[in-house]
Amino acid sequence: MKKALGILLAVTLASLIGVGALAQTPLIIGTTDRPTELSFENSYDHWTWHILRATTGALTKLNDETLELEGQIAQSWEISPDGMVYTFHIRPGITFWDGEKCNAGAVKWALDRSIRLDGPKGALGLIKPYIDKIEALDDLTVRITLTMPDALFLLRMSNQIACSLIYSPKSTPENEFARGQYAGTGPYKLVEYLPDQYVKYEAYAGYYGPAPKAKLVIEKFYSDAATLRAAIEAGDVDIAWRTLAPQDIQDLKKNANVVVSYYPPSPGIRYLLFNVSQPPVDNPLVRQAISYAVDRDKIVSQVFSGSVEPIYTMVPNVDPPFFGALPTFPHRDMGKAQELLAEAGYSKSNPLKLNLWYTPKHYGTFEADVATVVKGSLEETGIIQITIQVLEWGAYTERMSAGGFDMFFLGWHPDYLETSNFLAPWTTEAPESMGTYFNRHPNYEAYKDIMEVATTTVDPAKRTKLYKAVQILSTQDVPWIPLWSMTDEMVIATRKNISGATLNISMDIQLWNIVKQ
Amino acid sequence: MVRAIIHGLDWLVRQVSRGRHALRKQTILKVGLAIVLLFVLVTVFGQYEWFTPYSPTLYRDAPRLEGPSSVHWMGTDQLQRDVFSRIISGGKASLVVAFCAVALSMSVGSVLGWISGFTGGYLDRGLSLTMDAIYSFPSTVLAIVLVAMLGAGLGPMIWAVGFVYIPTYFRVTRAEVLRVRETPYIEAVRAIGAGNVRIVLRHVAPNTVNAIMAVSSFNLADAILTVAALSFLGFGLPPPAPDWGFDIQNGQKFLQSGSWWLITFPGLMIITLSLGFGLVGEGISDLVNPKRKRKKV
Amino acid sequence: MGGLPRYIVQRLLLTVPMLLILLTAVFLILRVMPGDPVRAVLGGRNVSPQLIAEYRHKMGIDRPIPVQYVEYISRVFRGDFGESFSTFKPVLSELFHYFPATLELALCSLLFASLFGFCTGVLAATRADRPLDHVVRVFHIGSFAVPIFWLGLMLQVIFAVKLGWFPVATRLGGQVQYVFQSRTGLYLLDALLSGNIQWIVDVLKHLALPAITLGFAQAGLIGRISRASMLEVLDADYITTARAKGLSERIVVLSHALRNALIPIVTVFGLEFAILMGGAVLTETVFSWPGVGSYLVRAIEGRDWWAIQGSVVFIALFISVINLIVDLLYSLIDPRVRY
């Protein structure tokens, strides 16, 4: 009761003082992540999309709690029976923070512009192929005609995808990438962005939804996890998110002033890949042997202090589950691994010599340790000798797509939350640019056929079966070895006086829900 | 040619005996040399598993991230490896790169200096300008840029670090050549038909050698730090090879959890070795300029 | 034109070949070595060869190297350093954005190094060959051998993590950051101009550890020079005269010797700055300091060719300007020097 009174008092006081910039202490969020450029049409990274999402909306959005699709800028919609025409009704009275009205014309303009500019770093590929034309029927009605029926279209139009966000025609240049020049619909207004330093937000008074709880927000960029951890301990930041180091998470749990919250599972996965056309890993026995010898538990315990989860299929185990996730990969079995290696003609006197490639910074600071542990676990067979090789990200991807790796690490965050996005990219979609060269594998056509049927089938039961089949096949062909799911990204550390900072499968915090007392 | 070699040997013997004599008085030099020698020996033996108490590269069933104890004198790291074992074998990259890089820059720099000094004209001017350009640029930054372009590993580090020191030797040698060239004696020698190579070997080399020795000691001290910085930034040996700079980068992640031993000991190794080379440099400088010594009030 | 202006122009002209040489080296190595900037920008996901070709064309790196070279050089001399591959902003304006942070850090560390070095040097000189002298000298020599990043980490863990006296990293605390107005990019100057005590304290607290880290080794160098030059001055005739006049040793040192002992120290400032720029890369990495050093490191990681080249030219230019200033300063302090 006393506490409630205190809050009431504080709220009254705050409202008495007013919402002036100086009257309230800002909410401070610290991260080691970075936005690239604040362009709807030319960005495809987590923090940029987080900023854009906090400052403007799309036609639809995922509900913060139920994760179901609901209207955002559109308040309702109709879908034609053939699934080709979507008619959206815009919520009346929405304005951008530059004073422009957010009507059908603005929606059409923004979507058309994003699709037209289609930046090379952007994600327009997720919406562009599906949209035939966009028309403003009247002030508050937009009709989008598709090129093909698409079960995921409302998801594509949601605020999960930055290129579907709506922004004001007045503030963004017509033919150049936005790069921070835009006005959105709120809940927050972007005040200032200084690369490598901070982003400042302020609540947009004209926001059509419930006013955000924290009026002022600042996000500070730290160069490494260690300083981020120190900042949350010292109270320099209220929230530390993306990404604290595992050991630091363990320590922060013991800190009385800090609350560490986990929101597993994570849709992000890490795995080993093989170039299946390159000797000696073109031999499936060798790849199978490695899949038996690799020690996920050691990676989880030694490198990540238990803050990630081992996975045995590429499709991560999330809630609600994906269609047909099936953990098919074997647990560690040294005997079996040695047997397979012997069958492939290797022995202690004729060891299997392999390179293991990793890139040092792109996936955080623990890659070297992961590589060391994997090397150790494979060499425990006594028959494998690993040489670890390092390349910076630019050179890494170049060599990867040139087919220059035999065995290498990679990571994946889904473009959209659907099973095929965890199976197709390395096998049927882009085997060469992913470095697996699976298109030279004898079973390539078979995979292709299965995936084609699966992605066009509407019947979930049938789809599930086909996806399962691919996963079972993949334990024989071993183009990949799933290792762990990045649950360490689903951790938020907050100071005691912060509430409402939660994560869900969309992997983003809802800035507007966070309360600082 | 034979005579030149004999002269060279003769000169070397004189230098060594003079050096031995001087060593007796030079505490700084002696301490420095002792440190360097100790580190070289430890590092060489450290490459063999029978010398290190535990394997420096493989994880084993030891406690994870445990502080110094009687079993693990300098504690263990997150992969359950013995820090002490990693420390004593972790100097390989530093020493190999430092020695090779300094040897590289010394030979290239000196030869360029001789050529430039003797030839004069446009070549001399061009070379001097190039060397000044490299010299005035921050060497650490240059090394980082070069090694980032060349790729990680011992070879690229040797080239990068070696490259940035070339101007130092170039300048020392060229200045000496210019000085010697003007002396009437050399004019005379030249008049009776002595070639440039001979002049260099008999008259220039002996005079520059002391200065070059001092410079190279300081360069070695600096190279140890540069290599550590490169490894720290991730351009060194690939894991799991033990390496001081890399281990500090690694330890940084656990520093705030209180695992101070992960960075403290590799750091102390770098400091001691670099200091060792620095002291050798000081000692040699004192030998070369005895004035410096006397100048103390 | 004669004298000083002529000298300045000469010096500035001399930097041109120097810049050309550095640029050419970096330019060539970047293009010969593996590591594709286009792929680094686009990432490894589903990148089609057409997109790469299109992007290479857009970046202007699909043409023959000599053509690129000539074009780039001519652009540099017009003050156009190209656009960053990763941010698409002009490299020069980005450098100007990051530069004040580095400058502020360098100046403050130099200030620390000068004060600390000079004091210890003078102290050692006035107590020559006594135990204190030896301790100080060992420190002066030893300070060179300490890796900057290691020192930074140690200071962080002791003074920020364990004792909590200073913040761990960055330039400002979150609370101040939100309202802080920066005009010059030099936060200390901004804070001082604003007169806001809270801001000044915050900026100073954030500056302390990085500045000490970066200045530590320089303090040793300056200390050594101060000691040597002080010894020389104390030996000079006019000091002997002063002593003979019966002035106390304190007055002799403070009023007669100090000024003259300062001269040699100014000469090393140019050199100092070159070393400081090298150290700044590491210090900025350790302290999340948003300066030219961290910009360069990020450019290297992203194979951002224009940004790497731009940073190298920028640093080189900065060093030559500093050297020039130091030379001129030297002529002001020492009347014997004339141009």
If you had to describe this structure to a student in words, what would you say it looks like?
The complex is a heterotrimer of chains A (about 525), B (about 300) and C (about 350). Chain A has about 525 residues and is α+β, with helices and mostly antiparallel strands. Among the domains of chain A are: about 60-165, Dipeptide-binding Protein, Domain 1 (Dipeptide-binding Protein, domain 1), CATH 3.90.76.10; about 270-485, Dipeptide-binding Protein, domain 3 (Roll). Chain A has helices at about 1-15, 45-55, 105-115, 155, 225-235, 245-255, 285-295, 295-305, 335-345, 365-380, 395-400, 425-430, 445-455, 460-475; strands at about 25-30, 60, 70, 75-80, 85-90, 130-140, 140-145, 190-195, 200-205, 215-220, 240, 260, 270-275, 310, 350-360, 385-390, 405-410, 480-485, 490-495, 500, 515. Chain A has a seven-stranded mixed β-sheet with strand order 8-9-10-1-11-19-12, with helices on both faces. In chain A, a hairpin with a 3-residue loop joins β8 and β9. In chain A, α13 packs antiparallel against α14. Chain A is globular. Chain B has one domain (about 30-55, about 70-290): MetI-like (MetI-like fold, Orthogonal Bundle). With about 300 residues, chain B is mainly α. By secondary structure, chain C is mainly α. Chain C has helices at about 5-30, 35-40, 50-60, 65-75, 90-125, 130-140, 150-160, 175-180, 185-195, 195-235, 235-245, 250-285, 290-300, 305-335. The longest helix of chain C is centred in the middle third of the chain and has 39 residues, at about 195-235. The model of chain C has no long low-confidence stretch (mean pLDDT about 85). Chains in contact: A-B, A-C, B-C.
